[in-house]
Amino acid sequence: IKTLKYALVIAAVLVIAFAVFALWPTQSDAGSREIGALGFITPVSVAVEEPYLTQTPGLGLVIPCDNASVDAMGAGIVTEVVRRPDEESGSYILIDHQNGFKSLYSNLEDLYQSVGDEVKSGQIIGRTRLYGSELLFEIHHDDEQQNPLDYISFA
């Protein structure tokens, strides 16, 4: 009986350890994605069939993706992190890529970065909500909003 109890405890610990490891944020496999202009990558590694542009409130890309890891499109420094878990638009992260470009990732459930953090291209910065979620993704150049599809590709 004691041996069986120990075996069950060890099995439970292994299951928990595996679950934590599987969910722990790491570097995404950016190498398997299309690289757009200036070497920027798509902010999600899940298959995206129909990202679409929205004009509200500005030019942003809406990417349907439930419970998806969200990655930095390029290396940079996190300049803004706003946690709004109860609002429809969710939380967001703003990254300054130090070359006139900034990227905004909104409608996030989980945020893995803080202001001042340096991020690498493809580094996981957050996660979208579990159900019915869409990532709102914006690119700004010299403080002017750009069409993200001019810089990233979902080919």
Describe this structure in words.
Mean pLDDT is 78; it is low at 17-32. With 155 residues, the chain is α+β, with helices and mostly antiparallel strands. Strand 1 (52-54) and strand 2 form a beta hairpin. The protein has one helix at residues 2-23; strands spanning 52-54, 60-64, 69-71, 76-82, 91-96, 101-111, 118-119, 124-128, 134-141, 144-146. Strands 1, 2, 3, 4, 5, 6, 7, 8, 9 and 10 form a ten-stranded antiparallel beta sheet that branches.
The main pleated sheet reads as:
10 strands, antiparallel
Indicate the overall shape: elongated
**First-last Cα distance:** 57 Å
How many E-type strands? 10
Q: Overall pLDDT, averaged? A: 78
Multimeric status of the protein:
single chain
How are the secondary structure elements laid out?
Blueprint: H1 2-23, E1 52-54, E2 60-64, E3 69-71, E4 76-82, E5 91-96, E6 101-111, E7 118-119, E8 124-128, E9 134-141, E10 144-146
Antiparallel strand pairs: 1-2, 2-9, 3-8, 4-5, 4-7, 5-6, 6-8, 6-9, 9-10
In short:
The protein is about 15% helix and about 35% strand.
